[in-house]
């Protein structure tokens, strides 16, 4: 199934802003000028890595259509959606690395404070700066993680070339971390 933007909106996400914010949550925090890695908080628990990738592809495709020149395109090259292995749901947050700061800023501006409308979720997205910045640093941080209790689809991934939501770029996906492939093949 191919995604098609409807009224310039990203499938599975509804842009809204909280006007009366007493607790200080969902406040739009400034990003550092060189920020490329973001943490997405309040991800609905039934969201999967593949759904998140589809959402990111949709966003990048929509943003890149708005650009008049080819510079500073929206593209991403790393995604990690941590999983609670006992419940088989995500942990409610994710990490994404964009290829340039402007792409990260555009994502933050589009998603921060918006509602996820898949799965009838009332969660409000909160986009913050990831503690670890850059694809190489994120990969280095995740490469020693043990995912033997999970599935390959639970692992962090990086892409070459980066994904920009277009059909013209065929990215190859690489998993990061330690995983028992024998378990996956033989059920051990």
From TrEMBL:
MF (Gene Ontology): RNA binding
InterPro entries attached to this UniProt entry: Mei2-like_Rrm_C (IPR007201), Nucleotide-bd_a/b_plait_sf (IPR012677), RBD_domain_sf (IPR035979)
Mei2-like C-terminal RNA recognition motif domain ranges (all copies): 36-141
Gene Ontology cellular component annotations, sorted alphabetically: ribonucleoprotein complex
Alphabetized Pfam families for the sequence: RRM_2
Top-rank taxon: Eukaryota
Protein name according to UniProt: Mei2-like protein
Organism name: Helianthus annuus (Common sunflower)
């Amino acid at each position: 199934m191919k995604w098609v933007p409807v009224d310039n909106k990203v499938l599975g996400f509804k842009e809204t802003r909280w006007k009366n914010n007493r607790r200080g949550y969902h406040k739009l925090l400034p990003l550092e000028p060189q920020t490329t890695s973001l943490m997405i908080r309040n991800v609905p628990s039934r969201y999967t890595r593949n759904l998140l990738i589809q959402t990111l592809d949709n966003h990048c495709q929509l943003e890149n259509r708005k650009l008049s020149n080819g510079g500073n395109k929206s593209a991403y090259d790393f995604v990690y959606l941590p999983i609670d292995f006992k419940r088989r749901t995500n942990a409610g947050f994710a990490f994404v690395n964009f290829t340039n700061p402007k792409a990260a800023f555009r994502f933050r501006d589009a998603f921060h404070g918006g509602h996820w409308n898949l799965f009838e979720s009332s969660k409000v997205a909160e986009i913050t700066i990831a503690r670890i910045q850059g694809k190489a640093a994120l990969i280095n941080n995740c490469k020693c993680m043990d995912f033997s209790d999970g599935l390959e689809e639970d692992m962090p991934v990086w892409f070459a070339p980066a994904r920009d939501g277009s059909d013209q770029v065929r990215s190859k996906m690489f998993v990061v971390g330690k995983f028992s492939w024998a378990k996956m093949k033989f059920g051990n």
